[in-house]
């Protein structure tokens, strides 16, 4: 009896998803526990596994289609898939022999619609440019036609034909009249906007629209932290197994500043301000599919080594697509570090419903006045974007100054932690 493949529970506040990529084709054998389809949600991508051995009998929802929790997206039937594959191989030559030459175009049209394996997005691209899929050589698994295959044929069609040559010499002919350049459409590439990118875009606009966002800036002299890291990083790593980076210092400084200014660690819920007395710090991580913000829980109770290890683990799992919804849920304050990409200054956007976000930037040597003398110091600009409905300007500036003081004096930071 066929087993239905259903969309599982997607987590808190997530009600629908997008079918990303089928890892198996119809008629192909599957094993229990084997991933068969990738599904994209607002926060993470995950794989749905087969519940039993058998054959992928049908695919009800194609790539790019929106599905809800509990929707049937395919079925698995009993069998091993070998019989279906053998039957296809036996029938294919007979069909080709029976097809009369005069009916070739119709045959190709039917094959493009039914016989050739291509995702809905690839079929749409072929239809848009008038490409017959029967003319496309599929390079994907099992002869599947990919987007690159269709785009390659489009590019070949747009190239002008080469002039004929005789006896190794190019034949001289009158120059042909100038032709119109190929349409700009042939030089464009259409890439599906992933579910995550759509959600990021929606939330950024929502944040700009729903919060009275303002940004204040300061600069931090990183000399003391860099000197401490230079002296202690090897022994720290040998003792703890963690690399001593900047993030643990700024996480610890942020927690201390949040304790001193509770309204920065809050959430506006209707007419009430929810002051949170726990410190779950979100750390922005860049991945191929966009920015994600996994959360370091109870950062106030963790040591420098524990924070460094957890941030490193979250970053690796984010880039490998192995984060869970629990890793991303919640967060009371966020830190983002554009400095790893070379950013000197920026205005980070709030992660709602949080009311503040700290932006770190590139460390750069600059001339500064110290005790009446000009000295070259490693300086970092820091930015605090905040919701002005909740946080006053004086409070935001004082919060950022507190972070500056703590990072510039790591011994005080250790005592605060």
From TrEMBL:
<comment type="similarity">
    <text>Belongs to the 2-oxoacid dehydrogenase family.</text>
</comment>
<dbReference type="InterPro" id="IPR023213">
    <property type="entry name" value="CAT-like_dom_sf"/>
</dbReference>
<feature type="compositionally biased region" description="Basic and acidic residues">
    <location>
        <begin position="106"/>
        <end position="116"/>
    </location>
</feature>
<comment type="function">
    <text>E2 component of the 2-oxoglutarate dehydrogenase (OGDH) complex which catalyzes the second step in the conversion of 2-oxoglutarate to succinyl-CoA and CO(2).</text>
</comment>
<dbReference type="GO" id="GO:0005829">
    <property type="term" value="C:cytosol"/>
</dbReference>
<comment type="pathway">
    <text>Amino-acid degradation; L-lysine degradation via saccharopine pathway; glutaryl-CoA from L-lysine: step 6/6.</text>
</comment>
<feature type="domain" description="Lipoyl-binding">
    <location>
        <begin position="2"/>
        <end position="77"/>
    </location>
</feature>
<keyword id="KW-0012">Acyltransferase</keyword>
<dbReference type="Pfam" id="PF00364">
    <property type="entry name" value="Biotin_lipoyl"/>
</dbReference>
<dbReference type="GO" id="GO:0004149">
    <property type="term" value="F:dihydrolipoyllysine-residue succinyltransferase activity"/>
</dbReference>
<dbReference type="Pfam" id="PF00198">
    <property type="entry name" value="2-oxoacid_dh"/>
</dbReference>
<comment type="subunit">
    <text>Forms a 24-polypeptide structural core with octahedral symmetry. Part of the 2-oxoglutarate dehydrogenase (OGDH) complex composed of E1 (2-oxoglutarate dehydrogenase), E2 (dihydrolipoamide succinyltransferase) and E3 (dihydrolipoamide dehydrogenase); the complex contains multiple copies of the three enzymatic components (E1, E2 and E3).</text>
</comment>
<feature type="compositionally biased region" description="Basic and acidic residues">
    <location>
        <begin position="181"/>
        <end position="192"/>
    </location>
</feature>
<dbReference type="InterPro" id="IPR006255">
    <property type="entry name" value="SucB"/>
</dbReference>
<feature type="compositionally biased region" description="Acidic residues">
    <location>
        <begin position="87"/>
        <end position="97"/>
    </location>
</feature>
<keyword id="KW-0808">Transferase</keyword>
<dbReference type="InterPro" id="IPR001078">
    <property type="entry name" value="2-oxoacid_DH_actylTfrase"/>
</dbReference>
<feature type="region of interest" description="Disordered">
    <location>
        <begin position="78"/>
        <end position="121"/>
    </location>
</feature>
<dbReference type="InterPro" id="IPR050537">
    <property type="entry name" value="2-oxoacid_dehydrogenase"/>
</dbReference>
<feature type="compositionally biased region" description="Basic and acidic residues">
    <location>
        <begin position="145"/>
        <end position="159"/>
    </location>
</feature>
<dbReference type="InterPro" id="IPR000089">
    <property type="entry name" value="Biotin_lipoyl"/>
</dbReference>
<feature type="region of interest" description="Disordered">
    <location>
        <begin position="135"/>
        <end position="192"/>
    </location>
</feature>
<dbReference type="Pfam" id="PF02817">
    <property type="entry name" value="E3_binding"/>
</dbReference>
<keyword id="KW-0450">Lipoyl</keyword>
<dbReference type="InterPro" id="IPR003016">
    <property type="entry name" value="2-oxoA_DH_lipoyl-BS"/>
</dbReference>
<dbReference type="GO" id="GO:0045252">
    <property type="term" value="C:oxoglutarate dehydrogenase complex"/>
</dbReference>
<feature type="domain" description="Peripheral subunit-binding (PSBD)">
    <location>
        <begin position="117"/>
        <end position="154"/>
    </location>
</feature>
<dbReference type="GO" id="GO:0006099">
    <property type="term" value="P:tricarboxylic acid cycle"/>
</dbReference>
<keyword id="KW-0816">Tricarboxylic acid cycle</keyword>
<dbReference type="InterPro" id="IPR011053">
    <property type="entry name" value="Single_hybrid_motif"/>
</dbReference>
<dbReference type="InterPro" id="IPR036625">
    <property type="entry name" value="E3-bd_dom_sf"/>
</dbReference>
<dbReference type="InterPro" id="IPR004167">
    <property type="entry name" value="PSBD"/>
</dbReference>
<dbReference type="GO" id="GO:0033512">
    <property type="term" value="P:L-lysine catabolic process to acetyl-CoA via saccharopine"/>
</dbReference>
<protein>
    <recommendedName>
        <fullName>Dihydrolipoyllysine-residue succinyltransferase component of 2-oxoglutarate dehydrogenase complex</fullName>
        <ecNumber>2.3.1.61</ecNumber>
    </recommendedName>
</protein>
């Amino acid at each position: 009896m066929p087993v239905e493949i259903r969309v599982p529970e997607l987590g808190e506040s997530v009600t629908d998803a997008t079918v990303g990529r089928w890892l198996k084709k119809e008629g192909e054998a599957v094993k229990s526990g084997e991933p068969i389809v990738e599904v994209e949600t607002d926060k993470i991508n995950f794989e749905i596994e087969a519940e039993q051995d058998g054959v992928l009998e049908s695919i009800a929802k194609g790539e790019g289609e929106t599905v809800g929790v509990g929707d049937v997206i395919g079925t698995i039937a009993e069998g091993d898939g070998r019989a279906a594959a053998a039957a296809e191989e036996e029938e294919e030559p007979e069909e080709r022999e029976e097809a009369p030459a005069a009916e070739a175009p119709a045959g190709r049209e039917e094959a493009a619609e039914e016989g050739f394996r291509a995702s809905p997005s690839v079929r749409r691209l072929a239809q848009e440019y008038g490409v017959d899929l029967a003319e496309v050589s599929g390079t994907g698994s099992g002869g599947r036609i990919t987007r690159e295959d269709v785009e390659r044929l489009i590019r070949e069609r747009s190239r002008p034909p080469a002039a004929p040559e005789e006896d190794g010499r190019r034949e001289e002919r009158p120059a042909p009249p100038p032709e119109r350049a190929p349409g700009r459409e042939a030089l464009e590439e259409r890439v599906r906007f992933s579910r995550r990118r759509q959600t990021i875009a929606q939330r950024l606009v929502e944040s700009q629209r729903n919060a009275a966002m303002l940004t204040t800036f300061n600069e931090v002299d990183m000399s003391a932290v860099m000197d401490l890291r230079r002296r202690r990083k090897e022994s720290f790593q040998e003792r703890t197994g963690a690399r001593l980076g900047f993030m643990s210092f700024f996480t610890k400084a942020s927690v201390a500043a949040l304790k001193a200014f509770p309204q920065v660690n809050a959430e506006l819920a209707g007419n009430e301000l929810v002051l949170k007395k726990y410190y779950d710090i979100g750390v922005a991580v860049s991945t191929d599919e966009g920015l994600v913000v996994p959360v370091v829980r109870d950062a106030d109770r963790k040591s420098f080594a524990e924070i460094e290890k957890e941030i490193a683990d979250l970053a690796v799992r984010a880039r490998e697509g192995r984060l869970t919804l629990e890793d991303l849920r919640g967060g009371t304050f966020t830190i983002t570090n554009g400095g790893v990409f070379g950013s000197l200054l920026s205005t980070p956007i709030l992660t709602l419903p949080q009311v503040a976000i700290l932006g770190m930037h590139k460390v750069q040597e600059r001339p500064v006045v110290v005790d009446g003398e000009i000295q070259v110091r490693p300086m970092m600009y820091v930015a605090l974007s905040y919701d002005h409905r909740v946080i006053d300007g004086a409070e935001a500036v004082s919060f950022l100054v507190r972070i500056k003081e703590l990072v510039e004096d790591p011994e005080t930071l250790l005592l605060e932690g």
